[in-house]
Amino acid sequence: MKIGLIDIDGHHFPNLALMKLSSWHKAQGDTVEWAQEFGHYDVLYKSKVFTFSTERTFLVSADRVVRGGTGYRDYDTTLPDEIEHSCPDYSLYTDFRAAYGFLTRGCPNRCPWCVVPRKEGAIRPHAELSEFIADRKQAILLDNNVLASDFGLSQIEEIVRQGIRVDFNQGLDARIIAKNPDIARLLARVKWIQYIRMAYDHAANEEPVMHAIENLKAAGVKPYRMWFYVLVKDVPDAMRRVEQLRAAGAIPFAQPYRDFENNTRPTQFQRDFAHWVNKKELFNSIEFQAFEPRKGFKCSQYFQ
Ligand code: SF4
Asked: How far is the CA of 154 from the centre of ligand 1 (A)?
């Protein structure tokens, strides 16, 4: 069979589902390629992770078209087990050197803005590192709450043992690190690609976030390795959290709120704030009120 692939989100980040489909089809003796204009395929897979990615028109034909991914508001379809547990075909994305995968799926929490509980359900083991590491020395791990799983913790031990450099790019749960200094010590033994990512989404999490920072510092992690997603709904509230992180020496990353159901666009105020926080040359040199994102408009005007 001839298989065509389309990554609707572009090629900015490897699409794990497409890499697994490619690997599985190649193992069946099929030919697999990125869909070519005017090509004809037995099966054409289109994958879209983000709802805000724009659907693109491809002049291709296929006997069967399979669409999947959260971007199509498809929260229920999963790959068949034999495909899901194939080692990804990393040759599709030659610019990326890391391995990609999930050690666990799901999350025991139910944060109202988050699609994970609905899409993935409760936390459970998913795959051992060996299933997708291939011969790579770095891994981008997409787990949503790996620290909530004993299996996940045992895999982090394995990561330490193998000396693999990692990034849990969906963030680690600061509340668990706050409660458990042993986990902070385990994380201090990991080689990080750059940051230990966590989240400080609500003022209500101040105590556990600050405690997690203290536990990590006590375990020997430098604060500039601690990177926090800061959800931005109410800007003054997000500003307080950002300044607390700055005072602790940690790195905030502002993320304007998007309603994944309605795909609502963040306000200009939220976007200007996120721009200021995330551009470190701005964040480290001027106050938000003095930031002038557009000619003639200073952010102090938001507070008048
Ligand atoms: S802890 Fe993280 S993954 Fe779990 S529901 Fe909340 S936001 Fe989603």
From this structure: 21
**Ligand 1 pocket member 145 (CB < 6 A):** yes
Burial class, 261, CB count within 10 angstroms (exposed 0-12 / middle 13-18 / buried 19+): exposed
Q: Using DSSP, how many helices (H) and how many strands (E) does the chain show?
A: 11, 13
**DSSP reduced 3-state for 296:** coil
Q: What is the per-residue pLDDT across 3-24, written as a single tens digit (0 to 9) for each?
A: 999 998 887 889 999 999 999 9
C-alpha to C-alpha distance for 290 and 108, rounded to whole angstroms: 42
Q: Is the CB of 119 under 6 A from ligand 1?
A: no
What SS3 class is residue 5?
A: strand
What global pTM score does this model have?
A: 0.90
DSSP structural state of residue 238: H
| pLDDT score for 52 | 76
Question: Which residue of 113, 118, 145 sits with most ligand 1 atoms within 8 Å of its CB, as the best mutation to test the pocket?
Answer: 145
For ligand 1, pick from 102, 114, 205 the residue to mutate: most ligand atoms within 8 Å of CB.
114
Give the closest residue to 210 by CA, choosing from 254, 169, 240, 255: 240
Rounded Cα gap, residues 102 and 121, in angstroms: 14
